[in-house]
Amino acid sequence: MDIRRVEAGQGIVWVQTGWAGFMRLPGLWILLTLVFLAIVVILSLIPYVGSLIVALIGPVLGAGALEAARRTSRGENFAIGILFDAFSRNAALNDLLVLGAVSLAVNGLIMGVGAVCIGSSMLGMGMMHGEGGALVGLGLGALIGLPLVLTLHALLSAALFFAVPLVMEGRASPLAAMQDSLKACWVNWAALLLFSIVVTILSVLAMISMGLGFLVLGPVLTCAVWAAYAGIFPAEPALAQPPEPVS
Questions:
Q1: Residue 193 falls within a domain, yes or no?
Q2: Average pLDDT of the chain to the nearest whole number
Q3: Rounded to 5 degrees, what are φ and ψ at 127?
Q4: Which among 136, 142, 140, 177 is positioned nearest to 160, based on CA atoms?
Q5: Which of 60, 63, 101, 147 has most Cβ atoms within 10 angstroms of its Cβ?
Q6: Which domain holds residue 139?
Q7: Residues 160, 174: Cα–Cα separation, whole Å
Q8: What number is the average pLDDT over the span 192-200?
Q9: What's 234's DSSP letter?
């Protein structure tokens, strides 16, 4: 698959493109975001399995939001129901659910790695130095485990960043899409680093308004992610049609 290398400055251009996409249909985007958040909150309230369901169908809802971003980038309108677009496409739905399941499983493994680092450090220091040693072990375990967990989470985020649109468009299987996404993030690390810094600053500003700023930032980032995807994974050229026979 053709993966394009872009300049670092594209990280800002993506955010600017995302803002332009939001401003084209601001009311509709805010309503779409409210529906998305309502679904997540309601599902999260289900005892025991709510958060698991959210993690599983997250890529499916994300694909619907990215489809809205794609139509916005083409100057088209969309309806709120587009959020559930992938549920009506069996092939895409199955692959997106696989992405959710892989993400859920890997997240569980990462948390397990962090727990093992802290637990083993506490146990070892505790056996040697008693209760005081266990506390020291907690600190040492966190010192080792936290950077490791953050690094693994960053790798998982990179693997998922472009995986949803790749699967949504049927350009790759779930695992292949994660590999392509990770490679694309590695190749374009400078642009994505700048993008992440800008997003972090905007997120802090969004929190100042009691979180209401995320009703704007969410759509902006959705359109920005689509702009990044479209720029790094150029559309595959259509096959040339054979000439019609001359009668």
A1: yes
A2: 85
A3: -65, -30
A4: 177
A5: 63
A6: 10-232
A7: 10
A8: 95
A9: P
pTM: 0.85
246: helix, strand or coil: coil
In a domain, residue 194? The reply is yes
Tell me if 239 is assigned to some domain.
Answer: no
Angstrom distance (rounded) from CA 151 to CA 65: 27
Report the alpha-carbon distance of residue 230 to residue 72 in Å, rounded: 13
Per the structure, how many domains does the chain have?
1
Residue 20 in tokens: 């332009």
Ramachandran category for residue 17: left, alpha or beta (phi over 0 → left; psi -120 to 50 → alpha): alpha
Confidence of residue 151 (pLDDT cuts 50, 70, 90): confident
CA-nearest of 56, 62, 91, 54 to 161 is 62
Residue 101 in tokens: 């399941």
pLDDT value of position 240: 41
In a domain, 31, yes or no: yes
How buried is 89 (Cβ within 10 angstroms: 0-12 exposed, 13-18 middle, 19+ buried)?
A: middle
